[in-house]
Amino acid sequence: MLTLVSINPTTGEKIKEYQEMTPEDVSEILQKSNEEFKKWRRVAFSERKKLMLKAAKILRDNKNSYAKMLTLEMGKIFKDAIAEVEKCAWVCEYYAENAETILKPELVETEATKSFVAFQPLGVILAVMPWNFPYYQVFRFAAPALMAGNVGVLKHASNVPGSALIIEEVFRKAGFPEYAFKTLLIGSKQVAAVIENDIVKAVTLTGSTPAGRAVASKAGEMLKKTVLELGGSDPYIILEDADNEGAVMTCAYSRLINAGQSCIAAKRFVIVESKKDDFVERFVESMKLMEMGDPLKPSTNVGPLARYDLRDELHQQVQKSIEMGAELLLGGYIPEGPGAFYPPTILTNVKKGMPAYDEELFGPVASIIIAKDEKEAISIANDSIFGLGSAVFTKDIARGERIAVEEIEAGSCFINTFVRSDPRLPFGGTKLSGYGRELSHYGIKEFVNIKTIYIK
Q1: Where is 174: in which H helix or E strand?
Q2: Where are the beta strands (DSSP E) in 198-239?
Q3: Alpha-carbon distances, residue 82 vs 76, 150, 208 (angstroms)
Q4: Residues 406-418: pLDDT tens digits?
Q5: Catalytic center residues
Q6: Which region holds residue 75: left if phi is over 0, alpha if psi is between -120 and 50, else beta?
Q7: pTM of this structure
């Protein structure tokens, strides 16, 4: 069987090896999870709430040690790792406090004596999750799923097994039944068999578009519900009346979140021509100030990428774009020494057909695209296979709202600030960025049976 290896991307040193579970191990976990579901679904919301709030407290009480695992396994700078742990606690608290109200039966006036809609759990839900936000991606699935009465099994990315086991530890310490949430230490080759198992009722995946296609194909073959949150190439439109200083700071910050390894990080900066010179000059200076280095150091702004192969693939995308005519304004090289580091990089003169225009650049690389006016900027923003997040910068709020609501093809659009997720708001995309929604009342209803009850 495969050995899952946790490697520190800052140093290249091995942290720990984990033996992959056998198909027999996985089958046993699924069977026990299914038996647990039969009991867990009948546990009162008040008891679920108590346990979920305890999970939130455990996260907050252990945020430094839990955060360090993120830094060691995938290179997240430590202060951001702490913020991720705290956000996990927030999502637990949100669903602990709101799940019962959200899932309360909804009365509907009809000719019946009584008619209403009930929301009932589905059963065992498989989560296939990525390495870039190893805790938060999982908790934003697990908190609503468990509060709805489902149970969860997690196939996490193979480079963050330590983080996966910590999530399971949090739920155990909080008092959840052992098989209400279990981690499957398996590689990607075993995922299809898990989806095929009749015990698994639905699948949620956050990851690349190819991974989404594979999971959706297998789940579709088995007629199982899926929610997919896939890649993004988020456009940030800078209009001629934008506040330059605020826009530059926000754009630089968003491009470098998690060393640029975020589906909703700013990636394509679409700037109207009259704004080009001033914005680009300020943007380059801002990105130059970002310190790359040891993610455990408080002064570090940009840590390493999560793996060497990801760093090398990103560099190839940059080099190919330059060969096709893009101009390098900053960065664009592989540093000497250990670690999967890649410096803040800016490309301009980016055109359609280049990787920097067409593909998702999953790292600290900014693509600058010039538009002659608002209409062309919107056209460029929408000229993408992706549709996850987006942002518009303008002092005219009504103008920004109109563009956000009526023009931009994306799952979200933020005005004069950077794209982020919030437990109170739905999160997801359109086009090749996936379908379905996580978070808010929309997210918790993705994995329930929405049942009509009609009484004559």
Answers
A1: helix 161-174
A2: 200-206, 225-229, 234-238
A3: 10, 28, 25
A4: 999 999 999 999 9
A5: 229, 263
A6: left
A7: 0.97
